[in-house]
Amino acid sequence: MPIDVPSDLQTKLQARYGKDKIRVLRVVREGAWHHVVEYNVTVLVEGDIDTSYTQADNSVVVATDSNLAKVSSHVLVPEHFALHLGTHIVSRYSHLHKAFITIEQLRWSRISTDSIRTPGNEDKGHPHAFLRDGDDKRVVQVEIDASAGKDNLIARVSAGISDLLGTQLGPFFAIEDHHSLCLIVLKSTGSAFTSFVRDEYTTLAEVDDRIFSTAVDLQYSFAAINLPAPTDEKKLEFKLGENVKGSVWDALGVAKRARDITLEVFADDDSASVQATLYKMAQLVLAQNTSVQSVTYALPNKHYIPVDMRYIGLENVSPPSNAEVFMPISAPSGLITATVSRK
Question: pLDDT band at residue 216, thresholds of 50, 70 and 90?
């Protein structure tokens, strides 16, 4: 049935289309030594595509789920694979001017077994057996911009961690489980929250020792980079830049340092507040990674409330530092966010 649209209606269109939730697991074999990566990929494009909306013209529509995972030699590093994929798309199709690639990488780590341990040899893990050892994910976002010409490609890259859960209880920390299996850090002291503004409606008590629990979302953005245009006919060529520490070409190193900094500061900081701990994390990520321009954390403050057990003759709330039994409270919760950037 035809749909009538008023002929005198004046509109403008800003369009982007693509494919979401493209799932892929890639095995890269180096003899008996295998590597695996599992990705959830989103690919979106912009360009001269308006007629697909305004005139039902599908001749400008490219199937954005085309899979480069088999042919790309950069697939093991999500930042580099996203750069390769986006560069290929805007270089291959003259009417597409921007590509937006989001990759969510699931954790797979090598299993350590007695059969692969030998005296004097470093345990590098099993050559082809892997363990999902956490629910935290690496998330990479890449924009390839060819608006200034196919020989003048600009790339903008950000990356980070999502679903990294920490619970502080003391000077020890251990890896435990969140939902199915996630990273949990335990510390029995070293977190406080005092001297905040109080008025007649305030109910939150000041504490000089408390459980500090949070699910970490971290994103860091690199300085924009210029990419050389592919010179081959199929536009599959992609060359990495110089592997300078802290640059996007050192993506795995940056990711490891950001993750390690987050967990070490969380565990070791004598936290005066979530805000103060967040700021220390972000400063160290910037300090140790030269091309990272900004760092954003979102740290929801998940509360654990001491249970009042005086009704059965047990003291568990006073002083708060002696509390041993807590009630997890899912809502309401604090939400502390900040972006720390270079000047």
Answer: confident
Tokens 């936290």 belong to: 271
Q: In whole angstroms, give the CA distance from residue 135 to residue 21.
A: 17
d(CA 251, CA 311): 55
Nearest-CA neighbor of 16 among 111, 91, 89?
89
Cα 307 from chain centroid (whole Å): 35
C-beta separation of 102 from 41 below 8 A: yes
Alpha carbon separation from 181 to 139, 159, 177, 246, 256 (Å, rounded): 18, 22, 4, 29, 19
Q: Which amino acid is at 221?
A: S
Task: Give which of 184, 165, 185, 182 is closest to 268, Cα–Cα.
Answer: 185
- Catalytically annotated residues: 19, 64, 303
280 burial via Cβ count (<10 Å: 0-12, 13-18, 19+)? middle
Torsion-angle region of 178 (φ positive above 0: left; ψ -120 to 50: alpha; else: beta) = beta
**What is the C-alpha separation between 250 and 225, in angstroms, rounded?**
13
pTM score, whole prediction? 0.84
Q: Is 218 helix (H, G, I), strand (E, B) or coil?
A: strand
* Among the listed residues 137, 343, 91, 336, the one whose alpha carbon sits nearest the alpha carbon of residue 237: 91
d(CA 320, CA 333) in angstroms, rounded, equals 19
DSSP 69: T
DSSP run (H or E) holding 182:
none
pLDDT (tens digit, 9 = 90+) per residue, 120-167? 656 788 999 999 987 788 999 999 999 999 999 999 999 998 876 544
Interval 327-343: pLDDT, tens: 888 788 888 999 999 99
**Helix, strand, or coil here: 165?**
strand
What Å distances lie between residue 298 and 76, 220, 244, 304, CA to CA? Answer: 27, 12, 28, 19
d(Cα 45, Cα 90) in Å, to the nearest integer?
A: 8
DSSP 49-65: -HHHHHS--GGG---TT
Report, in angstroms and rounded to the nearest whole number, the Rg of the chain calculated over CA atoms: 25
